[in-house]
């Protein structure tokens, strides 16, 4: 079987050049891009404003193939998780999360994950490979088509790169994906609606800042190097102070704050002493802290803290003037919550889908 190039890998400028190489005017590339993005087309026959001969030529030489959705689970809270089978047989998961006035999609960027965070099931799967651009974009296409077919009126407004894998270890494909998603005549997602979560790879953060500054979330999870290195093996490379310094240099999107993600684990990092250390670490810069109560799993040796301890931690940070939210675990019953994606594959691949956030106001 011929392995045709997938046109979901192409940015609009590349599609224009492709059309010229095929003897067509460059504006055909814009039309093609519109169908691939805005219309989420599944095949070239849908592209009725393209000449029939061009559609036949594209169909012969190129592909719009999507990963196969082999499983779909829906939680009582409306969260929907898809298991997607890739062309080479590998599996990933992507999650649609309902919010009050919109939907958020949590996308994966790798098959498995090389980071190996101790509180995340995905890390136990190991790392297989990076996703191609079209495999990341396809998750958005599938989600948008699914919501449209269900007759949902609320928009898929936010895309968060918090699924399987460390996005910055697939940096080239990540940046190209972000550019495709943000192009005004395509998906048209604003940068503040595209959030990249990272465990903190400073060199890659610097490249992202230059190539495509977007909303950023740092997976910190501890205010001291000692605890963080026990939870995240790669943390030995950079100190927490170096990471916070790098975050302060990262370009801020207008009217937004850089997010600090903090998985709270009972008797590990949930005491007021750690809240004090975190407040001191973040002092003097408009960060937003997102507290994530640990989601238990039989494969992991940790426990979830009490609601009282979570609220005490949050209120302390708020008292220090730090905007602090608590994620309400969505998709918990279908193992679509933070650190659970890929759990089904472990039994037979995403830290951190998104949750609805509740905020207590400081003062």
Would you kindly provide a brief summary of this structure?
The protein is an alpha/beta fold. 32% of the residues lie in helices and 19% in strands. The protein folds into 2 domains: 7-61, DNA polymerase, domain 1 (Orthogonal Bundle), CATH 1.10.150; 68-359, TIM Barrel.
Walkthrough of the structure:
Helix 9 (272-282) packs parallel to helix 10. The protein folds into two domains: 7-61, DNA polymerase, domain 1, CATH 1.10.150; 68-359, Aldolase class I (TIM Barrel). It has helices at residues 12-21, 27-37, 52-61, 133-149, 171-182, 202-211, 225-231, 240-249, 272-282, 307-319, 343-347; strands at 68-74, 80-85, 91-98, 103-106, 110-112, 127-130, 156-161, 194-198, 215-219, 259-264, 288-293, 323-328, 356-359. The longest helix has 17 residues, at 133-149. The strands form two sheets. Strands 1-2-3-4-7-8-9-10-11-12-13 form an eleven-stranded mixed β-sheet, covered by helices on one side. It has a two-stranded antiparallel sheet with strand order 5-6. Residues 333-343 and 346-363 have low confidence and may be disordered. The chain is of the alpha/beta class. The protein is elongated. It is built from eleven helices and 13 strands.
């Amino acid at each position: 079987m011929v392995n045709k190039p997938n046109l979901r890998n192409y940015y609009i400028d590349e599609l224009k050049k492709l059309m010229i190489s095929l003897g067509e005017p460059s504006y055909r590339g814009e039309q093609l891009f519109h169908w691939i993005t805005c219309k989420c087309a599944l095949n070239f026959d849908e592209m009725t404003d393209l000449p029939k001969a061009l559609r036949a030529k594209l169909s012969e030489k190129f592909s719009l193939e999507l990963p196969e959705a082999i499983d779909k689970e829906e939680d009582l809270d409306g969260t929907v998780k898809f298991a997607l089978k890739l062309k080479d047989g590998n599996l990933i998961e992507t999650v649609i999360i309902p919010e009050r006035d919109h939907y958020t999609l949590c996308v994966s960027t790798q098959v498995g994950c090389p980071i190996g965070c101790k509180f995340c099931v995905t890390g136990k799967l190991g790392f297989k490979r990076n996703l191609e651009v079209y495999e990341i974009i396809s998750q958005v296409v599938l989600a948008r088509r699914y919501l449209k077919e269900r007759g949902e009126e609320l928009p898929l407004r936010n895309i968060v790169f918090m699924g399987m894998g460390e996005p910055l270890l697939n940096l080239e494909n990540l940046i190209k994906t972000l550019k495709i998603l943000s192009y005004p005549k395509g998906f048209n997602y604003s940068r503040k609606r595209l959030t990249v979560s990272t465990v903190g790879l400073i060199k890659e953060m610097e490249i992202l800042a230059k190539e495509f500054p977007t909303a950023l979330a740092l997976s910190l999870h501890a205010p001291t190097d000692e605890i963080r290195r026990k939870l995240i093996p790669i943390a030995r490379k950079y100190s927490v102070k170096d990471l916070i310094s790098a975050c302060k240099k990262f370009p801020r999107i207008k009217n937004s704050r850089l997010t600090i993600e903090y998985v709270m684990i009972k008797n590990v990092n949930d005491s007021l002493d750690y809240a004090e250390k975190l407040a001191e670490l973040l002092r003097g810069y408009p960060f937003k802290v997102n507290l994530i109560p640990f989601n238990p799993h039989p494969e992991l040796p940790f426990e979830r803290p009490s609601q009282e301890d979570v609220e005490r931690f949050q209120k302390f940070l708020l008292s220090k003037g730090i905007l602090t939210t608590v994620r309400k675990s969505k998709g918990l019953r279908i193992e679509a919550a933070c650190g659970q994606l890929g759990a089904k594959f472990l039994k037979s691949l995403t830290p951190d889908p998104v949750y609805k956030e509740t905020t207590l106001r400081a003062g």
